[in-house]
Write a structure and sequence with these properties.
The chain is of the alpha/beta class. Helix content is 35%, strand content 25%. The chain has 7 helices and 10 strands. The strands form 2 sheets. A 6-stranded mixed beta sheet has the order 6-7-8-3-9-10, with helices on both faces. The radius of gyration is 19 Å and the shape is globular.
Length: 257
C-alpha cells in the first residue's frame, strides 16, 4: 500500500469554540493510482490533503506513505495549490527552477528537466515570459511543472483548475492524464467538479458536508487511455449520476420541486 490513512480527524480551535473539520476517515491509496476527492465546500477536502502532505498536523489518526508515518512536511512529494503562486519577478523557466534552488539540486540536470517539462505542456516558447504575460491555464501549467521538477512519486493537487475557463480546464485534464500515464505517478486530486473527478480518476472518494466523512469510494471502471469524448458515454453519465445521488442523500443537492 502506497498511502494508508487510518482514523484521521481534524479539529480547529477558533475564538467561538472548536470546529470539527474532518471526522475520522480511513482509506488507502495504491501506487500509481489516481484518487479524486469530491465534496461540498468546507467538508475537509483541502485539510485532508494538507495533513497527508505533513503541512498540517492531524488531531487524531495516522498517515503513512510507503509505511513511514508522516510526522512533518513530506518533502518527497509535489503539491499544486488552488492558486498558481508564481513569483511575478521570475520568468516561467526561473519559476520552475525555484525547486532546484530550494532543494539544492544539480543545476544543469534540473535545467534539462525543466525544459523538458515545459515542452511536454506546450510552454517551450514561453520560457522567458513573466507570469503577467501568461493566461490562467499557462500559469497553472507552469505551477505543475514546478511541482514535478524533482520527479516526485506522489502528486497532491488542491483544485488546481477551479479558476480556469472550461476549454483550458478540459485541455489540462487531458494533459494531466497523459503525463500521469507516461510518468506513472500517484495522484490525490481535490475538486468540486463531479465530471472532472470521474474523467480523471481510478477511484473517487465522496465526502459528506462538514465535519467531513467518507460517504463512499467509487471505482471508475472506464477504459484507458481516456479522451474527452468518454463524457458522452452512458457509463460516464451513470457514474456522475451515482455521485449526484449520494450528494442528494446527504443534503448537498436538493431536488427541484
Amino acid at each position: 500500500m502506497y498511502i494508508s490513512v487510518e482514523g484521521l480527524s481534524k479539529r480547529y480551535d477558533t475564538r467561538s469554540g472548536p470546529v470539527d473539520a474532518l471526522n475520522p476517515v480511513s482509506f488507502d491509496v495504491e501506487e500509481n493510482e489516481f484518487l479524486s476527492i469530491v465534496g461540498p465546500s468546507g467538508c475537509g477536502k483541502s485539510t485532508l490533503l494538507m495533513i497527508v502532505s505533513g503541512l498540517v498536523p492531524a488531531s487524531a489518526g495516522t498517515v503513512r506513505i510507503r509505511s513511514n508515518r508522516v510526522l512533518g512536511p513530506h518533502t518527497g512529494l509535489g503539491f499544486v495549490f488552488q492558486q498558481d503562486v508564481l513569483l511575478e519577478w521570475r520568468t516561467v523557466l526561473q519559476n520552475v527552477m525555484l525547486q532546484a534552488q530550494v532543494r539544492r539540486l544539480d543545476k544543469q540536470q534540473s535545467l534539462r528537466r525543466a525544459k523538458e517539462l515545459l515542452r511536454l505542456v506546450g510552454l517551450e516558447e514561453f520560457e522567458d515570459k513573466y507570469p503577467y504575460e501568461l493566461s490562467g491555464g499557462m500559469r497553472q501549467r507552469t505551477a505543475i511543472c514546478r511541482a514535478l521538477l524533482h520527479d516526485p512519486d506522489l502528486l497532491l493537487m488542491d483544485e488546481p483548475f477551479g479558476a480556469l475557463d472550461a476549454i483550458a480546464r478540459d485541455q489540462l485534464n487531458e494533459d494531466l492524464l497523459r503525463y500521469r500515464r507516461e510518468a506513472h505517478k500517484t495522484v490525490m486530486f481535490v475538486t468540486h467538479s463531479i465530471p472532472e473527478a470521474v474523467f480523471l480518476s481510478d477511484r473517487v472518494l465522496v465526502m459528506s458536508p462538514r465535519p467531513g466523512r467518507i460517504e463512499e469510494i467509487i471505482t471508475i471502471d472506464l477504459p484507458h487511455p481516456r479522451h474527452l469524448t468518454v463524457r458522452e458515454t452512458p457509463k460516464f453519465a451513470e457514474l456522475v449520476g451515482r455521485i449526484i445521488r449520494i450528494f442528494e442523500s446527504v443534503g448537498v443537492f436538493k431536488k427541484a420541486q
